[in-house]
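Hi C.,

You asked whether I'd gotten around to modeling the 77-residue construct. I have! Everything is below, sequence then structure, no commentary in between.
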Amino acid sequence: MNKDKIKEIIENTLQGSSAEVDGSEGKFTANIVYEGFKDLNTIKRHKLVYNSLDSYIKSGELHAISLKTYANTDEIS
């Protein structure tokens, strides 16, 4: 699994989102902007992303991913 594939999965699952993914060897970080996160707390936002990557996490293909989630670009500081 590479960062481009993770980006593709997230953006295809969360239609209209924008993801920046970095890392390698099963350990990644992702910054995700998605309007669908609006009014959701951090746990619910992360669950949406983890659900899109669930099969890769279960298979061990994706070992760890650290998430930062934003409802819009104004939240990014």
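If it helps when you're writing up: Residues 42-59 form the longest helix (18 residues).

Thanks,
B.
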